[in-house]
Design goal:
The protein is mostly beta strands. The protein has a single domain, classed as Porin. The chain is built from 1 helix and 15 strands. The strands form 2 sheets. It has an 8-stranded antiparallel β-barrel. A 3-stranded antiparallel sheet has the order 10-13-14, with no helix packed on it. A hairpin with a 2-residue loop joins strand 11 and strand 12. The longest helix is centred in the first third of the chain and has 14 residues.
C-alpha cells in the first residue's frame, strides 16, 4: 500500500502550486495533536512519577505581519492525563495549552514549505481528581519551539506536519501541602489541514 501511495505523493509535491505567504494573509488550521510527556516526570511526594500521552483536536490561527513571518495562536480541546506516583496512586487532570508563537516560513518557491518558530505557552490545569485526596496543579508558563512542513495541495490549502517541544512544569499540592513539581515537557506531534485567506 505504501508503495502504491508514493507516486501519488511525489506527483502532488511536483504539481501542486506553491503555498506562498504574504504580509496580511491569514491561515486557519484544523487537525490532531498528540501530546507525549517526557519519560521522567519528576518526583511527587519524593517518588518517581510518570504522565501518560493523549491526543486531541487542535486549531491554529496565524496572521502574517510580514512576508513569510506569521504570529500563530494554537488552541485545542482539553487534553486529559493520568499521573502515576509509583507505589502510591494516581491522579487525573485536564489541561488547555494555548501557545503564541512567531513562525518563519522558508520561501522555497515549491510546494513544500519548511517552517520553524518559537513562542510562549500557558498551560492551565483543571478537573483534577485522585483517590489520594484534593490534588491541585498550578498553571505553567514556558517556552515553546516548533518545526514542520507544509505540503501544498492547492494555492490556498496545505497538509501540515509539525513537531513542538513545550516547557511545562507544574507545582503540585495534595490536601493543600506542596508535594513537588510535575515536569511534563512534552513533544507534541501535529497533523492538520491549513487554509489561507
Amino acid at each position: 500500500m505504501k508503495n502504491a501511495l508514493m507516486p501519488v505523493i511525489l506527483a502532488l509535491a511536483v504539481t501542486a502550486p506553491a503555498h506562498a505567504q504574504s504580509a496580511g494573509d491569514w491561515t486557519l488550521g484544523f487537525g490532531l495533536g498528540y501530546v507525549s510527556p517526557k519519560d521522567d516526570n519528576g518526583l511527587l511526594a519524593g517518588t518517581p512519577t510518570t504522565v501518560n500521552d493523549d491526543t486531541q483536536v487542535t486549531i491554529t490561527a496565524e496572521y502574517f505581519a510580514w512576508d513569510n513571518i506569521g504570529i500563530e495562536l494554537l488552541a485545542a480541546t482539553p487534553f486529559k492525563h493520568t499521573a502515576t506516583i509509583q507505589g502510591v496512586g494516581t491522579a487525573t487532570t485536564k489541561h488547555l495549552p494555548p501557545t503564541l508563537s512567531m513562525v518563519y516560513h522558508v520561501p522555497t518557491g515549491g510546494s513544500i514549505t519548511p517552517f520553524f518558530g518559537a513562542g510562549i505557552n500557558w498551560t492551565t490545569f483543571f478537573s483534577e481528581k485522585s483517590a489520594l485526596g484534593d490534588v491541585n496543579l498550578d498553571d505553567s508558563f514556558g517556552v515553546a519551539l516548533k518545526v514542520g512542513l507544509d505540503f501544498a495541495v492547492s494555492d490556498r490549502g496545505a497538509i501540515r506536519t509539525e513537531l513542538r517541544w513545550i516547557d511545562i512544569d507544574s507545582d503540585v499540592s495534595l490536601n493543600g501541602t506542596p508535594i513537588g513539581t510535575a515536569e511534563i515537557d512534552p513533544l507534541v506531534v501535529g497533523v492538520s489541514y491549513v487554509m489561507k485567506f
